[in-house]
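User: For a teaching handout, I'd like to show students what a predicted protein-ligand complex looks like in token form. I'll give you the sequence and the SMILES for flavin-adenine dinucleotide. Please answer with just the structure.
Assistant: Understood, here is the input followed by the structure.
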Amino acid sequence: MSAADIIVIGLGAMGSAAAWVLAQRGYRVLGFDRFAPGHDRGSSHGKTRIIRTAYYESPEYVPLIRRAWTLWRELEERYGRPLLRMTGGLYIGRPDTVLVQGTLASARTHGLAHELLDAEAAMRRFPVLRLAPDQVAVYEEAAGLIDPEAAVHAFQEQARACGAELRHTVPVERWSIDGDGIRVETSEGSFRADRAIIAAGAWLAELVPELRRLLTVWRILHVHFEPLVPQRYDAARVPFALWEDEFGIYSAFPELPGQGVKFGRHDSGEPCTPETARRTATEEEIVTLREQLVRYWPDAGGRVLWYLTCLYTMTLDHHFVIDRHPAAPNVILCSACSGHGFKFAPAIGELLADLATDPQSSPPALFQLTRFEQSEPARSPRRPPDRRSPDAGQSARSAHG
Ligand SMILES: Cc1cc2nc3c(=O)[nH]c(=O)nc-3n(C[C@H](O)[C@H](O)[C@H](O)COP(=O)(O)OP(=O)(O)OC[C@H]3O[C@@H](n4cnc5c(N)ncnc54)[C@H](O)[C@@H]3O)c2cc1C
């Protein structure tokens, strides 16, 4: 006797979105999460997430993000409060950077509205910015910020409203094939369902060891700085900015009430496991981040309001894994992170629901596990080999002017 049609393991952004879509479609959904709602141990906390459309990682993401925009608006309707805040987005770097080239490629492939500004024009348009003469900025309006804690709460609230049963602080210890269904052992006993979705984020390899060679967990540090000039980086006037240069790829979030400016590095993190992740930050790390921030946002690097650590689950090519388990087609695997998954959550929820309920459906090739069967997976666009260490900030700042 199955307790549910579908068991969802992991109620972060992806599992909660899938639970919402499945419950809306009338399926009996039973969800488990090892921590309490709103916890800060995984990948879906931290007050803000960037949502953008001209997608530098690959133009193949644009149809999915378009679907996500529609579903985010639908979720806001049902939830009765805003989850998104439109700020516009800036993608800054030399014309030959992965960030600028990829953003322009996506915008041109899909006919997305955007502006390409040279350094002078960008600084005239956004006086808070500093760019080097050989840099450009791509600006798009279809971009902004999501409130991740509220978004996950909205998915869960809506899933429950459609009949889903979501159990927090109930870790799943293991799962197994049980006839034509799936059995899940938890701290609260054993449960059976016809199908399962495993969206356990940084813990995915613990539940699916076959994926261990494909996934690496990074500890990521984000710091909230108080701008030296209050409201100079107010999100009402200043777009978020991603920039790429010899020190790496960074993301700067404009000022929201009580939050200051948030800043962190995007293309590199400290390898760890969820258990070994360092949850504190050193003075040196914070100084280095401030040095990188003020190179482009000179008045943003005041005192530290707070910092947070969070986990990226990186695949070998930094694209998502959304696919059926090779040995259990009624078990759907989801690793939609690599530091850029949140914005897609409702559309990924739909994709997971389709895979779990329609044996004929298949994920986009970009997300299929079979892509790793070739000897050397395509090299990720994000980490050219010769990054200079940010500690050399001193010289970089002077070069940057
Ligand atoms: C610092 C940072 C900044 C980011 N910025 C952006 C951004 O600007 N834009 C963007 O689009 N994306 C961004 N991302 C990526 C995005 O946040 C992730 O892709 C997304 O949150 C992943 O969601 P998830 O559901 O896979 O993981 P999680 O939210 O971590 O959910 C996994 C859940 O599984 C549970 N779990 C694990 N093991 C078990 C078990 N055995 N039993 C039961 N439950 C279990 C965990 O408790 C957890 O709640 C960022 C990520 C980080 C860390």
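For the handout, you might add this sentence: The CA atoms of residues 79 and 157 lie 8 Å apart.
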